[in-house]
């Protein structure tokens, strides 16, 4: 029997042209380490009731990783056992010693005795338990060995044991080597062995198929869920190469190597690994699925699909489209609707890069539901909601759709999609300008226990949804003036998503945006200008907008205007409404800065109409502020006060601190302006309430450190106090103003004309 | 040990060969060859001995008086003689451990070498046996020659003390190479070549370790006539065929015209540059001189296969099978034979057998892939090609084969990657370029396709199809001017070859040209082409119709100049002014070429 296997094995094992990785169908075999484990198990059975409960529990926890993990040196194993139960470690060592220093028959006897644990009316080990399966595997593998293999196993055991002994001995005898000549000889030998040793360390020993599978699945899930915990790219690649050296037919290793290359953005080796994987898979597919060419055709279309995904990931959209077309064609030819659905979703993603395509997406959702692909369906819904939100569809409908898809997620326990859905909601609430709701959703995701955490113990940590939510959280905190908290969050992001990882660009952008805002508030325009380049690299539209803002702040009005006009046209073309409104506001601001309030008005009205249409509440309020300011300047402060009442509530509820301050400041200004026509008694009341409002504005500005605005508020307050005849308060304000005024350069725009 | 060193020196002095390229004293060379053959044999180095003997055989026989004297025995040799004799006989019987046991403690160079060599071979043999007996499939990569490390330690001590002779250095180099210490190994082999230039084994090992021309430049090699053989060999290995052929020619001129080794090497070189006729004739010559030769016959069979010479291949296969059917080359030849007879299952079987005999025999994987392709067993073909690539990443035929497989599976985009790899390895091979072009055409990327076809034509198209394809592309794109140019070039190419082989697309070319000139109202040219069309079956009617139309139009119009210019497409006119400008522009296919 054995000889037949041997002859089969030695030759490239070809049947029907397919080389089998493993003719025996044995996924595991006996090694000295496994024998040590067997000894441990049998000792565990023998010790039985003598073991304390605590020790037993510790040992049980130790067993599983030992059974699944790679082989290790005896000393390490002994240490691990000693930590749980020192007494047992000693007896395992003695048993091994007896076997290794005894004769071959001791080992044979040991294996004969192993099967006893299954016998009896009440066996120690259940046949189908984890331990039972392991034992049976080992017994089977041992029985399949030929004579020479048995002998080799025995010598391997002896070496395994002796290496450990020698190591112990070396530790003790290290100092006793006094004979210089001997030392010399030893040195020379070691020196010569140098390069070899390294090699030996590198290949710490082959993994059995089971061990390899465990290793691969573990690393793959880590890569998906928490990249920072997985092995570093270089060392993982080394392990994989090692694995492939021993078994080149292990296709999954190629796939993991593809994933690993993606981590370091290596187009060449990732393409290579991906294609290699599918080349290999085509074989195993043909072999394992006996129903004709189904299995093998299947992998073909998925191969093309994966290639499309790869090109898309690296931004080669044209290539991706070609590959996708191929996948679609093959899938159509073989009537594989499920693959077609996957292709459709990818097609949507690709088309999205070029133009929006709701029709495609709706179609995809319908079909996916029809074929029972909840994952794809709900991904489609998410994308659709996103698209619709940008297109200004009614918010309640979108929320309804999200709720429906959430139902789907919970029903199918799609924890990943639940995360995505929450992140989506966070983003949508922010889009609508409801920061409180956004904050709440973000916190929900972060404090929610992932479903997978229950089963696997792996927290899904580095998915895109987490990155999105954390970035929003950072920005929300920065808006409220909690800069320390924001930078804390960013620090955390940096740790969780190292700079070369896939989602790192997100936090890079947010980080720079926050820094930009701070620089603008402080009036350090040169710093802001230097940040623009970084923002442009990550997001060109955002970069152009910020550039215009810097130009505006530096009073380079005509350049800013030119840039904004260009940006406006571009954004209208790509239907980025949010940006259109922001740009319109900036343009209006340019106009009123140049004292052309009448021209600013229609622009502002346009922005207001757009914001209302797309229910971007926050932008709408901001537009109203601008509008009110223009009205104030045009001499209708009563009207301004009227519309301000509309905007003040949402701004105070959801706005950034800076906007709150501006709003209050504006309210005070309007109050003062409209008080001019009041009776003296009423006038004093109005002025006093204006002073209170100014106080509020002052606290807001102080929070975000806006010195310029503070200065203006102080000036204004001082004037009011002066009018009211409160000299002491007036003097205090005037002093504070003077301090600030000395710090800051005077700017060209008259105080009363500035609202921001 | 001191005496041993002196002995080695004496041997080296005796072996000192005349300077590089100096073949004036063939007798001296012959003497050296004979003596080194003898010494190699004494040490169990059979291949080197064989090589020297083969070369010696090609030279004139020596008279009795000039035969090299039997090697002088030193005191040490005499002391070790008994042990050596016993051990050598064990060694010849492949009982290496036994031989080593009786040789331990021997001091003479010869016995010491045999001692170390038997230990090395014993380790190698055990390694092979271990592979069978390893505990699990994954362990097979881990089996290694246990003796190597000990051998390295001992030999390096001797090396440091300068006690190794040429053969000892050679063995030390082999051990180093087996341990993957390539740099050290090269140094040692160079040293071995200096000490004992006559030992072909050291040169051959050096050939395997040198990967490019730059490396070769920086080696300081002994200036002997052996160097010429080495250079010729390594040029062949590095695909510098022109240089190699030159070297071999000069060796033949120097008097080695009868050497079968040189003849076979020349044949292989011609095979590599695909000069099939020359290679075939040389192989035939070789078979005549050395009818029982098995080496290189696989290459010969490849040539016969390409030329579809069934009877010759069949004869060769039967002949080799009679000589020794359990040789890798024989299996390969038989595989080719079956493949030519379209019995692909059997062919695959024989390639498998070749691999069983020698798993490191690269070509068989690729050939097997081709067979599975023929059998439409794509998955097995992919498997075989992948194996070939694993053994040798630079095997362009395997990459090309993989591309073809996916093309058959109708995945033109997917196979682009494989064709590109093949193209990178053979940038000047038109077949890959044409394949690439076809894929791009299928993907409707016509600009890329045009580039590929033009490039294929520019690097010298073998199948002469690139131009036609290019012309058709231009036709599709309504670029009639360029299309006509391409067809003209195509026709010129076909005619200038002088081959009378019926080419399928010639008629299409003439038809297009006739119509093109007709449209341009160039009646003379149009009628010339139309007349040509009449020579082909499928275009005869069209040609006649066109001729009639031309005649009508001519009669209507003014009488054109009647002097008939020489047909523009004939090679006579093209030789002077019409040589196609084969500018090779950089091939920038697309932004992404992983």
TrEMBL record, chain A:
* One Gene Ontology cellular component annotation held by this UniProt entry: spindle
Q: Which UniProt keywords apply?
A: Cell cycle, Cell division, Cytoplasm, Cytoskeleton, Mitosis, Nucleus, Phosphoprotein, Repeat, TPR repeat, Ubl conjugation pathway
Q: Where would I find the Anaphase-promoting complex subunit domain in this sequence?
A: 254-353
Q: Which CDD domains match?
A: Apc5_N
Q: Name one GO biological process term.
A: cell division
**Which one Pfam family would you cite for this protein?**
Apc5_N
Biological or metabolic pathway of the protein: Protein modification; protein ubiquitination
The subcellular localization recorded is: Cytoplasm, Cytoskeleton, Spindle; Nucleus
The record places domain Anaphase-promoting complex subunit 5 N-terminal at: 30-167
Belongs to which family?
Belongs to the APC5 family.
Q: What does this gene product do?
A: Component of the anaphase promoting complex/cyclosome (APC/C), a cell cycle-regulated E3 ubiquitin ligase that controls progression through mitosis and the G1 phase of the cell cycle. The APC/C complex acts by mediating ubiquitination and subsequent degradation of target proteins: it mainly mediates the formation of 'Lys-11'-linked polyubiquitin chains and, to a lower extent, the formation of 'Lys-48'- and 'Lys-63'-linked polyubiquitin chains. The APC/C complex catalyzes assembly of branched 'Lys-11'-/'Lys-48'-linked branched ubiquitin chains on target proteins.
Entry-linked PANTHER family: ANAPHASE-PROMOTING COMPLEX SUBUNIT 5 (PTHR12830:SF9)
Q: What is this protein called in UniProt?
A: Anaphase-promoting complex subunit 5
Q: Which organism is it from?
A: Origma solitaria
Source organism phylogeny: Eukaryota, Metazoa, Chordata, Craniata, Vertebrata
TrEMBL record, chain B:
PROSITE patterns assigned to the protein according to its UniProt record, in alphabetical order: TPR
Extent of the TPR repeats: 328-361, 362-395
InterPro entries (alphabetical): APC8, TPR-like_helical_dom_sf, TPR_rpt
Q: Which GO terms describe its biological process?
A: anaphase-promoting complex-dependent catabolic process; cell division; positive regulation of mitotic metaphase/anaphase transition; protein ubiquitination
Domain Cdc23 per the UniProt entry, residue ranges: 28-267
Lineage: superkingdom: Eukaryota
Q: Does the keyword Repeat apply?
A: yes
On whether Membrane is a keyword of this UniProt record, the answer is: no
The protein's annotated pathway? Protein modification; protein ubiquitination
Q: Could you identify this protein by its name?
A: Cyclosome subunit 8
| Protein's gene | Cdc23
């Amino acid at each position: 029997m054995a000889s037949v296997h041997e002859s089969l094995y030695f030759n490239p094992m070809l049947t029907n042209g397919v080389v089998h990785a493993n003719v025996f169908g044995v996924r595991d075999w006996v090694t000295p380490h496994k024998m040590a484990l067997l000894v441990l198990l049998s000792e565990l059975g023998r010790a039985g009731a003598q073991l304390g409960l605590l020790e037993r529990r510790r040992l049980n926890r130790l067993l599983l990783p030992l059974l699944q993990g790679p082989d290790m040196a005896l000393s390490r194993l002994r240490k691990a056992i000693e930590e749980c139960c020192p007494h047992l470690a000693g007896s395992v060592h003695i048993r091994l010693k007896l076997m290794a220093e005894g004769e071959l028959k001791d080992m044979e006897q040991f294996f004969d005795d192993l099967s006893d644990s299954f016998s009896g009316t009440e066996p120690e080990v259940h046949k189908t338990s984890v331990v039972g399966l392991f034992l049976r595997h080992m017994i089977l593998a041992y029985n399949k060995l030929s004579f020479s293999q048995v002998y080799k196993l025995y010598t391997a055991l002896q070496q395994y044991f002796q290496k450990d002994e020698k190591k112990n001995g070396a530790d003790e005898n290290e100092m006793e080597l006094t004979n210089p000549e001997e030392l010399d000889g030893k040195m020379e030998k070691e020196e010569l062995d140098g390069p070899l040793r390294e090699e030996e360390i590198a290949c710490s020993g082959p993994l059995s198929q089971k061990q390899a599978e465990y290793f691969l699945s573990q690393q793959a899930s880590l890569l998906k869920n928490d990249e920072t915990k997985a092995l570093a790219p270089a060392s993982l690649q080394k392990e994989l190469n090692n694995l492939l050296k021993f078994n080149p037919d292990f296709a999954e290793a190629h796939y993991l190597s593809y994933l690993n290359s993606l981590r370091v953005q290596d187009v060449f080796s990732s393409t290579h690994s991906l294609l290699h994987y599918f080349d290999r898979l085509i074989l195993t597919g043909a072999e394992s699925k006996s129903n004709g060419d189904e299995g093998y055709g299947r992998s073909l279309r998925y191969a093309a699909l994966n290639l499309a995904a790869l090109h898309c990931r690296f931004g080669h959209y044209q290539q991706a489209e070609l590959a996708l077309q191929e996948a679609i064609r093959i899938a159509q030819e073989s009537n594989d609707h499920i693959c077609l659905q996957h292709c459709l979703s990818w097609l949507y993603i690709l088309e999205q890069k070029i133009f929006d395509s709701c029709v495609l997406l709706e179609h995809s959702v319908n079909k996916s539901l029809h074929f029972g692909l909840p994952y794809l369906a709900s991904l489609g819904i998410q994308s659709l909601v996103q698209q619709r939100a940008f297109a200004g569809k009614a918010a309640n409908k979108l929320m309804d759709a999200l709720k429906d898809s959430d139902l789907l997620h919970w029903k199918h326990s799609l924890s990943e999609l639940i995360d995505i859905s929450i992140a989506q909601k966070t983003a949508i609430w922010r889009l609508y300008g409801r920061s409180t709701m956004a904050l709440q959703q973000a916190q929900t995701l972060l404090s929610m226990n992932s479903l997978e955490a229950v089963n696997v113990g792996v927290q899904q940590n580095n998915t895109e949804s987490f990155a999105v939510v954390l970035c929003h959280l950072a920005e929300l905190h920065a808006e409220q003036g909690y800069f320390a908290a924001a930078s804390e969050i960013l620090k955390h992001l940096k740790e969780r998503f190292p700079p070369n990882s896939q989602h790192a660009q997100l936090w890079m952008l947010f980080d720079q945006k926050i820094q930009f805002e701070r620089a603008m508030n402080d009036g350090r325009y040169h710093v802001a200008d230097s940040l623009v380049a970084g923002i442009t690299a990550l997001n060109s539209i955002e970069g152009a907008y910020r550039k215009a803002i810097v130009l505006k702040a530096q009073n380079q009005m005509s350049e800013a205007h030119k840039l904004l006009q260009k940006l406006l046209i571009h954004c209208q073309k790509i239907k980025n409404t949010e940006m259109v409104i922001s740009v319109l506001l900036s343009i209006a601001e340019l106009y009123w800065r140049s004292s052309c309030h009448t021209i600013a008005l229609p622009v502002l009205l346009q922005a207001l109409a757009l914001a209302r249409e797309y229910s971007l509440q926050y932008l709408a309020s901001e537009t109203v502020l601008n509008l009110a300011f223009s009205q104030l300047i045009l001499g209708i402060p009563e009207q301004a006060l009227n519309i301000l009442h509309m905007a003040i509530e949402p701004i105070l509820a959801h706005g950034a601190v800076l906007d709150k301050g501006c709003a209050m400041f504006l309210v005070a200004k309007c109050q003062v302006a409209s008080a001019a026509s009041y009776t003296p008694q009423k006038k004093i009341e109005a002025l006093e309430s204006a002073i209170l409002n100014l106080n509020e504005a002052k606290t807001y500005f102080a929070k975000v450190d806006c010195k310029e605005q503070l200065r203006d508020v102080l000036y204004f307050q001082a004037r009011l106090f002066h009018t009211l005849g409160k000299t002491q308060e007036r003097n205090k304000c005037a002093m504070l103003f003077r301090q600030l005024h000395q710090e800051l350069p005077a700017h060209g725009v008259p105080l009363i004309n500035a609202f921001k | 040990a001191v005496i041993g060193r002196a002995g080695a020196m004496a041997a080296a002095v005796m072996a000192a060969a005349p300077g590089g390229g100096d073949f004036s004293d063939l007798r001296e060379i012959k003497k050296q060859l004979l003596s080194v053959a003898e010494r190699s044999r004494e040490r169990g180095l059979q291949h080197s001995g064989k090589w020297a003997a083969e070369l010696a055989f090609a030279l004139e026989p020596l008279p009795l008086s000039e035969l090299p004297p039997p090697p002088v025995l030193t005191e040490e040799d005499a002391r070790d003689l008994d042990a050596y004799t016993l051990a050598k006989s064990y060694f010849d019987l492949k009982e290496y451990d036994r031989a080593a046991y009786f040789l331990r403690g021997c001091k003479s160079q010869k016995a010491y070498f045999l001692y170390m060599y038997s230990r090395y071979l014993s380790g190698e043999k055990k390694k092979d046996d271990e592979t069978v007996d390893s505990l699990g499939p994954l362990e097979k990569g881990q089996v290694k020659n246990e003796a190597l490390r000990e051998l390295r330690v001992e030999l390096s001590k001797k090396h440091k003390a300068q006690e190794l002779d040429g053969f000892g250095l050679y063995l030390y180099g082999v051990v180093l190479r087996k341990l993957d210490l390539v740099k050290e190994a090269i140094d040692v082999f160079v040293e071995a070549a200096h000490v004992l230039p006559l030992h072909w084994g050291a040169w051959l090992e050096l050939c395997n370790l040198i990967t490019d021309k730059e490396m070769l430049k920086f080696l300081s090699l002994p200036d002997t006539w052996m160097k010429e053989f080495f250079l010729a060999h390594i040029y062949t290995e590095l695909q510098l065929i022109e240089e190699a052929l030159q070297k071999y020619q000069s060796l033949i001129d120097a008097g080695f015209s009868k050497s079968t080794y040189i003849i076979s090497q020349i044949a292989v070189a011609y095979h590599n540059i695909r000069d099939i006729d020359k290679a075939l004739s040389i192989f035939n010559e070789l078979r005549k001189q050395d009818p029982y030769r098995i080496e290189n016959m696989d290459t010969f069979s490849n040539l016969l296969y390409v030329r579809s010479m069934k009877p010759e291949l069949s004869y060769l296969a039967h002949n080799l099978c009679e000589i020794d059917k359990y040789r890798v080359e024989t299996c390969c030849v038989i595989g080719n034979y079956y493949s030519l007879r379209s019995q692909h299952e059997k062919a695959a079987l024989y390639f498998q057998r070749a691999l069983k005999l020698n798993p490191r025999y690269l070509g068989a994987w690729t050939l097997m892939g081709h067979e599975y392709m023929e059998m439409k067993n794509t998955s097995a073909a992919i498997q075989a090609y992948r194996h070939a690539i694993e053994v040798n990443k630079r095997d362009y035929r395997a990459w090309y084969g993989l591309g073809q497989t996916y093309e058959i599976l109708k995945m033109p985009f997917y196979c682009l990657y494989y064709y590109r790899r093949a193209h990178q390895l053979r940038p000047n091979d038109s077949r890959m370029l044409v394949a690439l072009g076809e894929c791009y055409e299928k993907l409707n990327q016509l600009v890329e396709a045009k580039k590929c076809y033009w490039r294929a034509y520019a690097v010298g198209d073998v199948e002469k199809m690139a131009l036609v394809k290019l012309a058709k592309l231009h036709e599709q794109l309504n670029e009639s001017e360029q299309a006509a140019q391409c067809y003209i070039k195509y026709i010129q190419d076909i005619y200038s070859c002088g081959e009378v082989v019926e080419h399928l697309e010639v008629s299409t070319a003439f038809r297009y040209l006739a119509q093109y000139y007709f449209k341009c109202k160039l009646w003379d040219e149009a009628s010339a082409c139309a007349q040509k069309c009449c020579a082909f079956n499928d275009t005869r009617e069209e040609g006649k119709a066109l001729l009639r139309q031309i005649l009508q139009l001519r009669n209507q119009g003014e009488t054109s100049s009647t002097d008939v210019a020489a047909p523009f497409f004939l090679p006579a006119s093209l030789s002077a002014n019409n040589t196609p400008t084969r500018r090779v522009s950089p091939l920038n296919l697309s932004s992404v070429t992983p």
